[in-house]
User: What shape does this take?
Amino acid sequence: GREWTEISALETRDSGQSVLIRGVAQTIRPVSKKMAFLVLRQYMSTVQCVLSVDKESVSPQMVKFATALSKESIVDIQGIVSVPKDPIKGTTQQVEVQIKKLYCVNRSVPNLPINIEDAARSEKEIEKAEQTGEQFVRVGQDTRLNYRVLDIRTPANQAIFRIQCHVEDVFRRFLRSEGFVGIHTPKLIAGSSEGGAAVFKLDYKGQPACLAQSPQLYKQMAICGGFGRVFEVGSVFRAEDSYTHRHLCEFVGLDVEMEIKEHYFEVCDIVDHLFVAMFDDLNENCKTELDAINKQYPFEPLKYLRKTLRLNFQEGIQMLKEAGVEVDPLGDLNTEAERKLGRLVREKYDTDFYILYRYPLAVRPFYTMPCYDDPAYSNSFDVFIRGEEIISGAQRVHLPELLTTRAEACGIEVKTISSYIDSFRYGAPPHGGFGVGLERVVMLFCALNNIRKTALFPRDPQRLVP
Ligand code: ATP
Ligand code: AMO
Assistant: This one.
């Protein structure tokens, strides 16, 4: 076959070379009957292409044909790389391509529901356009999600999903290097795994069933099955009824479960090392992507410590109290209190990432191990980025009698989870683990304001299509 060039690979040292490129016609600007400019895009890169009538290959008909192309059509061009005298503004590549041949591979419709350049504007650019009276359309969230295929063509969106892929990749690589085994647990299950009402019910060949609210029970059963350390990357379903900026009805769960030798802080150590490695890796290897996101949605880089801060829940409550926020010492923190604590921690410890441990038992799921010294508290933790939760984790109850008592106390019908409870009767090691929301990690690392931005085709209480 012929050799194709990626737009991102075009450099000034290629000047004079002939290249063959397939890209999207992002803009088409006619200058005269003899000349037109095209900006070609591929993923996150753009290059300016010049179509100018000459004796050998470019006819006035070709300029006319190009000018009539609709934006976002797929085109192949063959041309010569050149370096213009003045620096090029508005494209990622600093070279031009002098078009010699141009084919339209597939046309887009002439009136697009979203103009990609409009969708890629930052708030600042929108303000500026408003002041100068420039023609543009503000693209709202619903329009973006309705026409997601167009919306995700913007550089920031291309970057967000590349970062998501990177987070998943670091998660797997790190855990594999620490001796964890990747598993897949069933998503069609007989009962709720997290308790509560947020469960999608369905009919399983005449038997009542649900979509898994988490891999919780099965990842623990894998530990009972002798795997020692496991992880899973999989879909999690929650029939959330409130519409918030950080809840989806389907999200990607990054789950971990492991044997504990002496203390559940061994689980916190994994969180600590995994996330420091992940943040380092993102900062080091995703510079282009982070720049693209920053350009549309400016954000402060995440502050994190070499050794992740661990804050006792009671200490957190005390910090809030001193700042004038009264919270129930045996209750959960609401969203507002979590955010406030995030700001206080940032001021006092200079970090946006921390672990809050030893939660009151009453606010944790039935499978959580109570503290040995005070059963009002539990061997559990949540992890926060910029004052918002990305992880819940804990040591689990591995004693079948205590597990039965705890399930009953939490109003769970024990017979619906008997195979789970029985798993602990055949020799079950002490263990613990945690669950991470992938979309939340990307959202909060980049300080984005809505989880719908980090889900490719988000599912929320109001949206099932596209
Ligand atoms: P988890 O599933 O571990 O609980 P989460 O982040 O989904 O994690 P929720 O239990 O849904 O957390 O909520 C945590 C806190 O956030 C709750 O204590 C609640 O006060 C608050 N919260 C949840 N939903 C909303 C909402 N729609 N508006 C305001 N606050 C909310
Ligand atoms: P939890 O219910 O806290 O814990 O969920 C773990 C993490 O998943 C993310 N998350 C969500 N993300 C998007 N939309 C939602 N509706 C949503 N709900 C939760 C959050 C949260 O921290 N089995 C336990 C984990 C464990 O203990 O191992 C669990 O599911 O980032």
